[in-house]
Amino acid sequence: MNETPPRWHTPRSAYIHVPFCRTMCAYCDFATFAGVEQHIPAYVVALAEEIRNRSGYKSGAMEWDSGIGSPGAEPDIPLETIYLGGGTPSLLEPAQLETILKAITARFGALSNAAEVTLEANPGFNPVVIGSWVNLGVNRVSLGVQSLDDPTLKRLGRTHDADTAIRAVEALKASGSISVNLDLIYGLPWQTLEMWQDHLRRALDTEPDHISLYALAIEAGTPLAKQVSTGQWAVPDDDLVADLYDAALPELARAGFRHYEVSNWAKPGHESRHNLAYWRNEAYHGFGVGAHRYIAGRRSWNVRSLDHYLAAMQSGRPVEDGSETLGQDALPGETAMLALRMRDEGIDFARFIERFGVDPRDRWRNIFEEVAPYGFLKVDDSRACLTDRGLLASNDIASRFL
């Protein structure tokens, strides 16, 4: 029995959801709301209350090598990463962010100097607030740039232009203590290979520390899905989307970025430690509207309605809307599927054996023998990783482990 609960059982990370946006993007299906900024003060109070008082699913006596937890009463472990996502957390005033972060330290203890604190932001924020963010402990900002091409931004319904995004990156980097990530979208119906390479090079010219590339997804129930169904937008061509992704690989490598996860590239030392906890299928807290948490083998999520969340918090009712507990059959497969997203780490055999007591080479021998000869997987004595060739088939390969 370990003295300290392992990371897959007791969280060292917390996700905090801030659902407010100035406008709604056509492709977004997150729990976000526009035009209701008057609810921000009440939401901050409710969010801080949830953080301080949620009883949660805490560690206790259990057989940790099973990977499945059980309720207990040990105190929470201090956090190593915090991620304020949304929505647009940068809409909050510094004092409101301070209220949330003070609730975190009241619940989990003071953050160490090594803690990673990420804030999602949209270009167009007042640079004056950067100093306040730094003073609050924010050391990583993820900018929802999406593109540095003005016509593309307009068609996506974004409220900023390319110059605003570039100035935002410059202001953040001038702070000297903030790691900057840029989110970019590719696979747009009007996007040619040449256009995409030009857009990506413009983004690299701003010298960010981290790049996340996301293929446009048509999510049911979004305005974009309706536009596609009525013929206003075309569904992106799969072969072209694959070509766009392939074209990004050498561009990012030449710029000094390490491809550490299927959709993420980082300069050395700027990997997202918070997101690594997700890809390793480790435990994490989640607070706020629609937030998910994964603690001691149990995954649960909050209500997605802002009104219901506020009413429940004000009346002392639970805000949890559902849960599931993965069993011994499903959890190893999900863990392997997520691990394959990490380019170099992949399915770490020693870590897998420690957690589940099973060697992946035995459990999934047939998958390794089927896929590896085609050059999609590299399997050695310590791990199994996707090759460059396997990247474009990553979803199909990963699904086999489920």
Structure description:
By secondary structure, the chain is α/β, with parallel strands linked by helices. It folds into 2 domains: 13-279, TIM Barrel; 333-399, Arc Repressor Mutant, subunit A. The chain is 36% helix and 19% strand. It has helices at residues 40-53, 94-108, 129-135, 150-156, 162-174, 193-205, 223-229, 238-254, 273-279, 306-315, 330-339, 349-356, 360-363, 365-371, 394-399, and strands spanning 13-18, 20-21, 33-34, 81-86, 116-121, 140-146, 179-186, 210-215, 258-261, 264-266, 285-287, 292-295, 298-302, 320-325, 347-348, 377-379, 383-386. A 9-stranded mixed beta sheet has the order 9-10-8-7-6-5-4-1-11, with helices on both faces. Strand 5 (116-121), helix 3 and strand 6 (140-146) form a beta-alpha-beta unit.
CATH topology of the largest domain: TIM Barrel
CATH architecture of the largest domain: Alpha-Beta Barrel
Strand order of the largest sheet: 9-10-8-7-6-5-4-1-11
CATH structural class of the largest domain: Alpha Beta
What's the shape?
A: globular
Ends: how far apart? 29 Å
Strand content range: 15-25%
Tell me the radius of gyration: 21 Å
Q: pLDDT average, as an integer?
A: 89
* Weakly predicted, low-confidence segments: 56-74
CATH superfamily of the largest domain: Aldolase class I
Major sheet: 9 strands, mixed
> What is the β-strand count?
17
